[in-house]
Amino acid sequence: MTHRSIGWTDHRVEVIIGNLLRAGVLLAAAVVLVGGGIFLVRHGSAAPHYAVFRGEPTDLRTPSGVLAEAVRLQGRGIIQLGLLILLATPLARVAFSVFAFTMERDRLYVIVTLIVLAVLAFSLAGGAL
Amino acid sequence: MNTLELTLLIWVGSLVAGFLGALTGLGGGIIITPLLTLAFGIDIRYAVGATLVSVIATSSGAAAAYVKEGFSNIRIGMFLEIATTVGAVVGASLATRLPTTTIAVIFGIVLLYSAYVSSRGVPEPAAVSQPDRLATLLRMDSSYPTPDGPKSYHVHAVPAGFGLMFGAGALSGLLGIGSGALKVIAMDRAMRLPFKVSTTTSNFMIGVTAAASAGVYLRRGYIDPGLAMPVMLGVLAGSILGARVLSGARTRVLRLVFGVVVGVLAIEMIYHGLSGRL
């Protein structure tokens, strides 16, 4: 019954990934909450600026810039770091699937999953059409 | 109104949206962007960026709960994700070029369609007994648990499903939504997947699709931390609450009410878009 054993492995992998994702989301939410607290303490009384689009400063647009801002304990930088952790959760899910399909010796789906991973990497590395 | 007050209001609004989104299965994302733009006067680009982030949070956060049920088909999900992620990058790139008024009108049309689907519900597709050559080649046929033991199913029309998924991905990237309703329809109607399988697989795909768009949005400066913070935390808390309540709730009336709300927001979005006020 090869089919059933594949199904079981798929399911076990999914359970591991599911728990991993939930942990990632909770971590991201905690970091965003801390950053949000700092941001609101410092800038809570200022007038909001969301009505006019100006785009974020370059430091908040790249992972390295965000990290630098977060290390300097800037509230907005820490929030953005939490959002990057959140962005990484689906990426981790796909990356883990590459590993899982490799373990299952499912070459076709290793390739399929690698394609998805490549598109994600292209987008996160700043690629756009 | 200062930043603190606005942040708290947005948090409460997002909480309610996430709660209703989880109860109705439509996701909170679809009403947050209209809420942010119409009620709070926030630029649609910031609104779309913040909503997209919350979509990832609900998808990844709910994965563990969905997985336990054993319905999702990871092979179908992964294969179709090639289409949704490429579509998402195209859509997100398009979003940075189209005028915001055009985006508002497209958003309104998608909302209208979602309202229609929400109030009607999607009928269970007729099961297919014959295996499909391409689906067999891609090893997509599988089974799902029922009270009477595992029930196997065959997948159909893979190319049509793939094409529809590209469209769903493009809309997700363009509007910052999960476009779960569209994904479910592509899998139900075209590929004839059982309803439970399509909804859970769709949740799995939403997060990955949104991450593909989010990369583009981040680089273009659409994701404002101060705004994304209350939206993400609110939607996440709301959807967790909603999932808790869901098991005992009767959702028929709720879906109808939600459908009407979404319909009204749709008309507002289209009107504001056409009159150039967004």
State the helix count of chain A: 4
Q: How many domains, in number, for the residues of chain A?
A: 1
Cα radius of gyration of chain B in angstroms: 18 Å
Largest interface: A-B, 70 and 70 residues
Low-confidence stretches of chain A: 1-5
Structural class of chain A: mainly alpha
The overall pLDDT average of chain A reads: 84
Helices and strands in order:
The complex is a heterodimer of chains A (129) and B (278).
Chain A: H1 2-43, H2 63-71, H3 75-103, H4 107-124
Helix pairs in contact in A: 1-3, 2-3, 3-4
Chain B: H1 3-24, H2 29-39, H3 44-69, H4 74-95, H5 100-120, H6 133-137, E1 142-146, E2 149-153, H7 158-175, H8 180-190, H9 195-219, H10 225-246, H11 251-274
Antiparallel strand pairs in B: 1-2
Structure description:
The complex is a heterodimer of chains A (129) and B (278). In chain A, α1 runs antiparallel to α3 (75-103), α2 crosses α3 and α3 runs antiparallel to α4 (107-124). Chain A has one domain (2-46, 56-124). With 129 residues, chain A is mostly helical. Helix content of chain A is 76%, strand content 0%. Chain B is built from 11 helices and 2 strands, in the order ααααααββααααα. Chain B has helices spanning 3-24, 29-39, 44-69, 74-95, 100-120, 133-137, 158-175, 180-190, 195-219, 225-246, 251-274, and strands at residues 142-146, 149-153. In chain B, β1 (142-146) and β2 form a beta hairpin. Chain B is globular, with a radius of gyration of 18 Å. In chain B, strands 1-2 form a two-stranded antiparallel sheet. Chains A and B meet through α1, α3 and α4 of A and α1, α3, α4, α9 and α10 of B.
Quick recap:
With 129 residues, chain A is an all-alpha fold. Chain A has helices at 2-43, 63-71, 75-103, 107-124.
Describe this protein with a few key phrases:
heterodimer; A: 129 residues; mainly alpha; B: 278 residues; two-stranded antiparallel ribbon; 2 strands; 74% helix
